[in-house]
Amino acid sequence: MTRPRKALVILIGVLAPALVWLVASAQTPGVPAWVSDPQVYAAAKKEGAVVHYCTLPQAYCEDIGRRFEKHTGIKADITRLSSGPQYSRLMQEHQAGLKVTDVFEIALVAAAVEMKAKGMLEPYLPRDAAKVDAKYRDRDRLYSEYYVNVQFIAYNPKLISAAEAPRRWKDIYDPKWKGKLTISHPKFSGITVDWLMWQAKLFGWDILQKLKANDPIIVRSSAEAIPLLVNGERPLSAQSYSDSAWEAKLKGEPLEISYPEEGVVVSHDYTGILKSAPHPNAAKVFVDYLFSLEHAQWLADHYVYVTHPAVKPPAGFKTLKDLKTLILDADEIARETKDVRERFAAIFGG
Amino acid sequence: MTRSVGWLVLESVRDEAGALTLENYRAAVTTPAFRTPAVNSFVLATSVGLLSVLIAIPMAWAIARTDMPWRGLMRVLVFGSVVTPGLLTALAWIILAGPNAGVLNKWYRALTHSTGGVNIFTLPGVTFVAVLECYPFAFLLISGALTLVSADMEDAASILGSSTRRTLLNVTLPLVMPAVLAGFILSFLEALTLFSSPAMIGIPARIFLLTTEIRALFEFPRRVGVAAALALPLLLVTVGLLWLQARLLGRRGYATVTGKGGSRRLIHLGWGRWPMFGFCLLVLTCSAVLPYIVLFLYATARTWSEPLGVGNFTLDHFRTVLFTSSAAQRAIRNSSILALTAATAASALGALIAYIVERRLLAGGPVLRLLAMAPMVIPGIVFAVGLFAGYTRPPLALYGTLWILFIAYLTKFLPYAFMNTAAAVRAVHPELEEAARIAGAGALGAFRDVTAPLIRLGVLASWFIVFIYSLRELSASILLFTNRTTVIGVTILDNYEFGSWRVVSALGCLLLAVNLAVVAGAYRFVGVSFLGGAKE
Q: CA distances (Å), B269 to each of B67, B76, B167, B378, in order?
């Protein structure tokens, strides 16, 4: 190799990586405004990835991951796992001593409380989460919620007129709904525990006998009741909730929502960081993002009930501020879960 | 495998702190909440096993041995029933026979101006759907055996003056008894470990079964020990059934493929062809035709409550599955890879074990048989938890990879491959190999040139069965998948639980298409179909 050519090779060898570095650093966005701590952010970038179990619909999980990665360059590996299987998986990983998951999200309040008691959780509260109402976060900062499940009554307007439709929780116990009702089983559906607790607080536990007299179909999660409702199989869902009901309504399926006069039941869906998180810093930045106004607004635009107080709701959608809410303390739900399930099983089996 | 069983036994006698205890068994036996599901499960499994065999015997005989019309179409429809995941059958029947809005009920009421009809959300409803899910197992085994029965013995009976019916009852049926028993055992066990119909039809009807209860014990509050104590009796039942099968069949010879030639002829049914035809068509309409018609219509309807028509037609849900949802695409890719590899590995391993066990090449054959069969009855979730414990820690840290799913599928479906090949090996009389040995072939040569070609059909059948089951596997995957390694079964369940019946229906139709394509391709290139029929 002649000397000039050798020099050229060296020159290219030095310049090319420098150029790549320059281009790369020019493309790297600065620290996003919603990050709580720039130092954590720098460390998170080094970790480069975050692993999250999500309870939102699959399509949302995919989108959240894409947008987070676009903002931060940190890869978000999000698996949708509903609360029961998710808890099962978390315990499985815990017992095997695996360090694979960073951030969980679970609607089974008793499970979150138990993980807290077992010392599995890392305390953390994003800057934006401090703005949300205190009833949406744990006082020890072990979990908090960027969205909640709001339970109301849904009905099929082709089979039930607006005048006839229940306006109060009390109305669903009317014998005229015999053979028309769906409810969820508290053993399979976490949010059914506090729904039942509220019904009992309002009307006493003989609601179970009254429900049974109405011969309801028992589903494992209220989302399963939606197709039964829109197909006309069971035109009345006693505890429909946020995203699944709204999704069907927006698609033009025959579904109307009735917000009961006593108030909607607001059920927790807690997010937190595991002590065993393999990417502890990326986990914090990711939770920052989940609580950011930008993300909250995106979710609200998709008819999810977010806790961020500053979102602007889309037309026709009521946010938590506009609704009369019935909400229970996590510890109380956790304490009562076993009892509620046993009471239900005694009447309905399972 | 051994690890899973070991884990099961260990967990069942341990409390949370790890100390030895019988508390789990006490809880399993004394809690009334478990007693009802246990009784329900055994009643369901027994009736499903019996009904499956009762349906499968005449169907298999008519399709494999008689001149009933449209046998080719029937085989295709049986295939359609075999590849249908239980969740889809259950979903289709909820749409068809829901008490208020079921399609069949609406028709019936419109035609008769009455208020009667059927209700799928009942114990007979669960049993009905479970039979539709389970009878193909019995059918495949019995039809495979019937194809192998040589006409020699039937001819002998005819020559001695026996009528067609007597020949059937006294000669043909006794000859396929091993397959009938195996068919009963298989559908019984399948019904015992079903998950979809108990969860989708049982729970709404307030009929609780063991599988849904066991799964719930892994969730909150987690009581793994009790789950293990409930699952262990299931394992013992299997062992007992397999032992019984060996006892009943052990002393007699059932080799039907011998060195003495023999041809198979179709039996002329005369006018009896038509009732037979009607019966087969009715069963297949329930298990394949109606479900797929309703799933396709459901997947392509914009709004189900509106009349169907051009204005109410959409391919959006197919588009979602194929092009929009990256999760669905990943699932389809992963499931394809897993199905191809698991089918190949399981059929090879199954053939090897079957040959060793049936020809008594090694001591401990029965133990090997038991090990190969045991995964069949362990509820999927228990099995997956055993795998989880075994393969997530170094040196085998396979969590989050396709490998752990591959191992799960291989272990889980090995029994099917084993049973299929074992039946094929049993049917080949050792005299054929002995003849080859006498003619100077080595042990390996005799296997290669004589036995291997004869059991080829059995091995191929295993491949297809494992392929089909892997493509739709759910119960083990649900505990082992991650976002990157998600599979079709998980995607279907996830969409079902989220109320997206449209997407489920679209996925189901696509699954059928893929299965049909693979089997049609195999039929074309290899010249055999997995239903035991060789290309004519």
A: 7, 22, 13, 43
Q: Which of A329, A348, A108 is nearest to A201 (CA)?
A: A329
Q: What is the pLDDT of residue B90?
A: 93
Query: CB atoms < 10 A from the CB of A103, how many?
Result: 25
Please count the other Cβ atoms lying within 10 Å of the Cβ belonging to residue A122: 18
Residue type, B155: D
Among A265, A271, A211, A272, CA closest to A242: A265
Separation CA B301–CA B279 (nearest Å): 31
Beta carbons within 8 Å of B312's beta carbon, 6+ residues apart: B301, B302, B303, B306
pLDDT tens readout for residues B305-341: 777 777 788 888 888 888 877 788 889 899 999 999 9
Model pLDDT for residues B353-378, shown as the tens digit of each residue: 888 877 777 666 667 776 777 676 66
A153 is written with which tokens? 């009554």
Q: Which residue did the predictor score with more confidence, B393 or B51?
A: B51
Report the alpha-carbon distance of residue B276 to residue B63 in Å, rounded. 10
Please tell me the distance from the alpha carbon of residue B213 to that of residue B513, in angstroms, as a whole number: 34
Amino acid A121 reads L
What string of DSSP letters covers B13-68?
TB-TTS-B-SHHHHHHHH-HHHHHHHHHHHHHHHHHHHHHHHHHHHHHHHHHHB--
Closest by CA position to B334, among listed B472, B196, B462, B460: B472
Measured CA to CA, the distance from residue B214 to residue B435 in angstroms comes to: 52
Nearest by CB to residue A188, choosing from B33, B216, B482, is B216
Domains of chain B with bracketed CATH: 1-30+221-249 (no CATH), 41-216+271-314 (1.10.3720.10), 316-536 (1.10.3720.10)
Query: Does B102 contact A233 at a Cβ distance shorter than 8 Å?
Result: yes
CA dist B529 and B514 (Å) reads 15
Whether the CB of A218 is below 8 Å from some CB of chain B: the reply is yes
Beta-strand ranges (E) seen in A139-281 are 147-155, 181-184, 217-219, 236-241, 256-258, 264-267, 270-274
Residues 6+ apart with CB under 8 A from A90: A53, A101, A104, A115, A120, A274
- For B222, the closest of A91, A97, A217 (CB atoms) is A91
Query: Is A240 touching B (CB cutoff 8 A)?
Result: no
Q: Which of B1-15, B182-196, B275-289, B370-384 has the lowest mean pLDDT?
A: B1-15
Of B205, B325, B389, the CB nearest to A59: B325
All structural domains of chain A, each given as residue ranges with its CATH number in brackets, are 38-145+268-317 (3.40.190.10), 149-266+332-348 (3.40.190.10)
Q: How far apart are CA B446 and CA B433, in angstroms?
A: 6
